[in-house]
Design brief:
Structural class of chain A: alpha/beta
Radius of gyration of chain A: 19 Å
CATH superfamily of chain B: ABC transporter involved in vitamin B12 uptake, BtuC
Number of strands of chain B: 0
Number of domains of chain B: 1
Oligomer: heterodimer
Number of strands of chain A: 12
Number of domains of chain A: 1
CATH superfamily of chain A: P-loop containing nucleotide triphosphate hydrolases
CATH architecture of chain B: Orthogonal Bundle
Order of helices and strands of chain B: HHHHHHHHHHHHHH
Strand content of chain A: 25-35%
CATH topology of chain B: ABC transporter involved in vitamin B12 uptake, BtuC
Shape of chain A: globular
Strand order of the largest sheet of chain A: 6-7-8-3-9-10
CATH topology of chain A: Rossmann fold
CATH architecture of chain A: 3-Layer(aba) Sandwich
Largest sheet of chain B: none
Radius of gyration of chain B: 20 Å
CATH class of chain B: Mainly Alpha
Distance between the termini of chain A: 60 Å
Order of helices and strands of chain A: EEEHEEHEHHHEHEHEEHHEE
Strand content of chain B: under 5%
Shape of chain B: globular
Number of helices of chain B: 14
Number of helices of chain A: 9
Helix content of chain A: 25-40%
């Protein structure tokens, strides 16, 4: 049975007491998260705070203690393929297979929908074509992956996750390495998908201005622990950022410029 | 043929073209393999003999029919099976180890199979060779790959492409040393084992076809069936897992199947290197990296390649024969360097 983003279960993701140890070293400790169905939670925190590990733990990719529920169902109850039909992951540093076309790559997203040894059906081809169209990559279907630009490549990876048709999308640093226009484009496309399909988004991000403009709620991690959780007005505060990032910032929110986190230190010409 | 390729898709035409070339190459290779030899038979006779399913057509002597049916045909079939096995195993090892340099020979699979078979020849019960040699070769191949993979991953920092191959070379050297030692201990079987190590198709008959066909067919069918899943593994273990794939199980199944094919090939033909490297990489140049194309085409081109190489091996210095492994190494070693260089540039 496929988990639908059902309206009657308002909480898409519920994480309780989640802890991860890698070689006896605690990476994530006693994590508690709730993400509303159709919402966007951004996990923020300094480098090494455990953001990526948390994302992997939510997707069941690293062993962990504690519980993860998806639309009320305990994660452990779901089979391997059903998990993949419920949670799609866009990794920070995706492995790009050699000599694949964009279409062949996005088709990998259909893996959890296909019988173990079966080939793809018309339905799968359609899902791939739709995913490509929605990420503005229809033109690139038969292009080689290695011929794409950084922004196009990132969109191809997201298209793979969209082809997976999972209601929960985990994006690990979706904007890293992209220019400002491509960063906006990727986030706008993701937000469009969220609105149109009712996807639930959990992302990690370093750019707090972009995070603050797209996500609804924020979970601030520091040293593997959740230190603040709430809306941007509750979490993205200068003293909180100073304490956990060790950076002086000002948060601007005015009618003309919109909302932004501006760093204050550093030389000015 | 998968439906992801639509008309007008350049990938499709590349694959169709490669398939057509592969089929033509196989037909040509088989005909060449049947035609070439010390006894002149003539193309027309060979064709008529083929279409009459092996009964000698008018104008062909009993002896000529015997040469075709009992010497050349089984040899061509075994060469084809061995070539297909080594090429497909190479492609499969490359996929599950995510390593472009993986090859049955370089990974220690072939050396393990060689050691296993040597043990069986030297110490096994005489008369029961038919089963003990291939089984011992299969066990040896698994041990060889297991050692190479284990060492390459845990002790040499498994990320680097070269570490698996370094481990494989070390394992292969060690296993070959053990094999040599055993040979010296049992010098009465030395000659038998030695000719076999360097690759022997010279003594091939229908017995070898019967010996190798079942396990090769089983192994190749398995690899064929999972070819789509080999693509999934290309994105790495963690991502493949996030796509719902049981990576550990697939890797196990593929390694067992590829080692079975390698062992069967080694059991009938000895140690033949580099086929698993040359063929899959050539195929990739033609059709790209997806194993949905690479695996089937490797089988096709591997078969044609080894039939032609074997024909070369028995004609160049006729009436003597060059060990077939010498020719594949002659082509394969420069190829290995080229792949290594290309890989380093990418990484």
């Amino acid at each position: 049975m496929k988990i639908e983003a059902r309206a009657e279960v308002a909480t898409a993701l519920e994480v309780r007491g989640l802890s991860v140890e890698l070689g006896k070293r605690p990476i994530v400790t006693d994590m508690r998260l709730d993400v509303a169905s159709g919402g966007w939670l951004c996990i923020i925190g300094p480098n090494g705070a455990g953001k990526t590990t948390l994302v992997h733990a939510i997707a069941g990719l690293v062993p962990h203690a504690g519980s993860v529920r998806l639309w009320g169902r305990p994660f452990e109850e779901l089979g391997r393929r059903e998990r993949a039909r419920t949670v799609a992951v866009v990794p920070q540093l995706p492995a790009i297979p050699d000599g694949f076309t964009v279409e062949q790559y996005v088709l990998l997203g259909r893996t959890p929908h296909l019988g173990l040894l079966a080939g793809e059906r018309a339905r799968d081809i359609e899902a791939v074509a739709t995913a490509l169209e929605r990420l503005d990559l229809g033109w690139a279907a038969s292009r080689r992956l290695d011929s794409l630009s950084g922004g196009e490549l990132r969109r191809a990876v997201i298209a793979r996750a969209i082809a997976q048709e999972a209601p929960l999308l985990l994006l690990d640093e979706p904007t890293t390495g992209l220019d400002i226009a491509q960063q906006l484009r990727v986030l706008e496309l993701v937000d469009e998908l969220r609105r149109a399909d009712g996807l639930t988004i959990v992302s990690t991000m370093h750019d707090l201005t972009l995070a603050g403009r797209f996500a609804h709620r924020f979970a601030l991690l520091s040293g593997g622990r959740l230190v603040a959780e709430g809306t941007r007005g509750e979490v993205l505060l200068p003293h909180v950022i100073a304490e956990h990032y060790g950076a002086r910032v000002r948060v601007i929110d005015d009618g003309t410029l919109g909302w932004a986190v501006v760093p204050l230190s550093g030389p000015e010409p | 043929m998968s439906r992801v390729d639509r008309p007008g898709d350049p990938r499709l035409s590349a694959r169709s073209r490669a398939t057509a070339i592969g089929i033509v190459a196989l037909v040509v290779a088989v005909l060449v393999g049947l035609l070439v030899g010390p006894v002149r038979i003539g193309a027309a006779n060979v064709l008529r003999w083929l279409v009459s399913f092996g009964s000698p057509p008018p104008g062909m002597s009993e002896q000529q029919a015997l040469i075709l049916g009992d010497l050349r045909l089984p040899r061509v079939i075994v060469a084809g099976l061995v070539g297909a096995s080594l090429a497909a195993s190479g492609a499969a090892y490359q996929a599950v180890f995510r390593n472009p340099l993986a090859d049955p020979y370089l990974l220690g699979a072939a050396a393990g199979a060689g050691l296993g078979a040597t043990v069986a020849v030297a110490y096994g019960p005489s008369g029961a060779l038919d089963l003990t040699v291939p089984i011992a070769a299969f066990v040896g191949a698994l041990v060889g790959v297991g050692l190479a993979y284990g060492l390459g991953r845990s002790h040499l920092g498994g990320r680097a492409t070269a570490s698996l191959v370094l481990a494989g070379v070390a394992v292969a050297s060690f296993l070959t040393a053990v094999q040599t030692f055993l040979q010296q201990q049992r010098s009465e079987t030395l000659r038998q084992v030695y000719t076999w190590i360097l690759g022997r198709l010279g003594t091939t008959g229908w017995d070898d076809v019967r010996l190798a066909l079942p396990s090769i067919a089983l192994a190749l069918a398995t690899l064929w069936a999972v070819r789509r899943l080999l693509d999934v593994i290309e994105v790495g273990d963690v991502e493949a897992q996030s796509l719902g794939l049981n990576v550990t199980r697939l890797r196990l199944v593929v390694v067992i199947a590829a080692s079975l094919a390698t062992a069967a090939a080694v059991s009938v033909a000895g140690l033949i290197g580099f086929v698993g490297l040359i063929i899959p990489h050539t195929v990739r140049l033609m059709v790209g990296g997806s194993y949905r194309s690479v695996l089937p085409l490797s089988i096709l081109f591997g078969a044609s390649f080894l039939i032609l190489v074997d024909t070369l091996a028995r004609t160049v210095v006729a009436p003597a024969e060059i060990p077939i492994g010498v020719i594949t190494a002659f082509i394969g070693a420069p190829f290995f360097i080229a792949v290594l260089r290309r890989n380093r540039r990418v990484a």
